[in-house]
Amino acid sequence: MKTKLRKWKMEDAQQLSEILNNQKILANLRDGLPFPYTIDDAKEYIQAMLDADQDQTFAYAITDEERVIGSIGVFRKDNIHFQTAELGYYIAEPDWGQGHGTRAVKQIGELIFETTDIIRIFAEPFARNLGSCRILEKAGFQLEGILRKNALKNGRTEDMKLYALVRE
Fold it and tell me: Where do the N-acetyltransferase domain residues begin and end (predicted)?
């Protein structure tokens, strides 16, 4: 098993579409993704990531032996928070529990701290998403607090956890 990050390619659209046509994954992401998630939706996302400002958006396919198994991105904030960025990621359900998420989060943290002036990366998983919380903890993120009743997802008010990794 080799978890690697690489820039998106338009040829990844089919695999991305298959990954995101899964309600279990969508239940843990922010709203805005269509369902069903078509190849055209995937192509639009990939093009947006390829066209994004390379100093603001750091978006990668997560791969295992060149097979796309997920997505990860770090998105720089602005104004007084310009050296802070938010992390988001997901792994295809067949690849859950194999360490890919932890390896991908570690890799992107190292990459961001080595190549940018960002000093803080944070993530806000739903508190109920124990797998994602565990990935962040194993990757060195520290729990900073619980954001009570912070989001409305699928008609339910949700608590979220705030994790951060800070450049030392």
Answer: 3-165
Range of the domain at 142: 3-166
Q: Angle 34-40-44 (CA atoms, 0-180°, nearest 5)?
A: 85
Write the pLDDT tens digit of every residue in 89-111. Answer: 999 999 999 999 999 999 999 99
Q: Apex CA 147: angle with CA 142 and CA 152, to 5°? A: 130
SS3 for 84? Answer: strand
> pLDDT category, 66, cuts 50, 70, 90?
confident
Residue 59 Cα distances to 28, 89, 161, angstroms:
18, 10, 22
As for how many domains the chain has, the answer is 1
Closest CA to 72 of 63, 64, 57, 62: 62
Chain position carrying tokens 């239940």: 27
Q: Are 146 and 127 in contact (CB under 8 A)?
A: yes
